[in-house]
Amino acid sequence: MSAVKLSWMALTVAVLVTSVSALNILLTNDDSWASANVRATYSALKSDGHDVILVGPAVQQSGKGGTVVFPTVNITAPGGEFGSIPVGAPFFGKAVDDPNIFYFNGTPAATALFALDVVIPQFWDNKTINLVVSGPNEGQNNGPFLYTLSGTIGAAYASIERGVPAIALSAGNSTHRSFTTNTGQADDPANIAGRLSANLVAALASGFDGVSRLLPLGVGLGVNFPIFGPGSNCSAPPFTLTRMTGGATIDKVSINATTGFPQFADFIAPGLNTVHSGSPILPGETPISAGCQTSVSVFSVDYDAPTELAEPVQLHLMPLFGKTQLTAQT
Fold first, then answer.
1. Planar angle of CA 220, 224, 226, nearest 5 degrees
2. Coiled-coil region(s) at which residues (predicted)?
3. The CATH number of domain 3-245+271-320 is 1.10.1060.10
4. H or E stretch at 42
5. Which residues lie across from 219 on neighbouring strands?
6. Whole-angstrom Cα distance, residue 182 to residue 137?
7. Per-residue model confidence (pLDDT) at position 18
8. Segments of the chain with pLDDT less than 70
9. 263-283: per-residue pLDDT in tens?
10. How many Å apart are CA 57 and CA 199, to the nearest integer?
11. Can you give the pLDDT at residue 20?
């Protein structure tokens, strides 16, 4: 079936998993190694038979994008997120009750790179990582604007740029909470996010032969769960194929009349939602995840403009190339 003939029914997929190909998975995030979402996802992936190592930031690192900052001191006050690491502890360490759960006191992208280059070679038998799973974030990361800002996505695209397939997962439930608050019930939002994440990984891993790539080189998945769980009417949001643009928002700034300080509001801007690549018939992930559906967008880390858009600009600038400035025309 050609892309233009895809129907809305074909774009909405509820994944039912009957068998799982076991993967070696690096799990990380930006909300810290002690967040409820990442620990629930760790448990869900392990229960599906995957070999999982969790390496997460020692503290909350939201909004860092792809920034790489390594620690220069050990853990400082007030300690690890939710009191999970004492002040003065080493910048890197592991959980006392699970040898495959680690913290690292760096940004999300730095954490992913440290895991790939140090933790896995030295502490995990140098296993080949089949997939990096980043998240689920506490809050959605819809659209290209948040793509550049999100630490969750930053850890994913840093991994992709290193050549490792990766998925960035973000959840509408934005409450920042410790894994110790997990109710243990299936309808706990962290457990719903964990199970959905594991279901998506299982679908991606279906038929995996242990040798081939799960995703093409330089390509990743951006996933946004809606708000679900207690207090909402959504508990089983089907997976839906989407694109990043389409209803995506960026900040629009104004001055607050009361405080006199800048404030922002969401703004659907034309430059952010212009379709340059991918299938134009796909719905945008922002409106899809606003309902009871889970958006799944395929992205590339190649930022070059398509040839048909780049070529006119290149030709216009051709007289400048090889020089430091345009010469005077006679």
1. 165
2. none
3. no
4. helix 36-47
5. 300
6. 16
7. 44
8. 1-20, 329-330
9. 999 999 999 999 999 999 999
10. 25
11. 55
Q: What percent of the chain has pLDDT over 90?
A: 89
Dihedral angle, C-alpha 106, 112, 113, 117, nearest 10 °? 110
What tokens does 31 get? 């909300």
Amino acid residing at 205: A
Q: How far apart are CA 89 and CA 220, in angstroms?
A: 35
Catalytic residues: 170
Q: DSSP string spanning 236-285?
A: -PPEEEEBS-SS--EEEEEE-TTT-SEEEEEE--TGGG---SS-TTSPBH
182 alpha-carbon distance from chain centroid: 22
Structure tokens at 42: 């760790």
- Concatenated DSSP letters of 86-149: -TT--SEEE-SS-TTEEEESS-HHHHHHHIIIIIHHHHSTTPPP-EEEEEEEEB---HHHHHHH
Q: What is the pLDDT of residue 210?
A: 86
- Residue 281 near residue 8 (C-beta atoms within 8 A): no
Contact 204, 133 (CB under 8 A): no
0.70 surpassed by pTM: yes
Q: How far apart are CA 74 and CA 77, in angstroms?
A: 10
pLDDT at 233: 87
* 309 membership: H or E segment, kind and range: helix 307-317
pLDDT score at 329: 64
H/E stretch holding 39 reads helix 36-47
> What single-letter amino acid sits at 17?
V
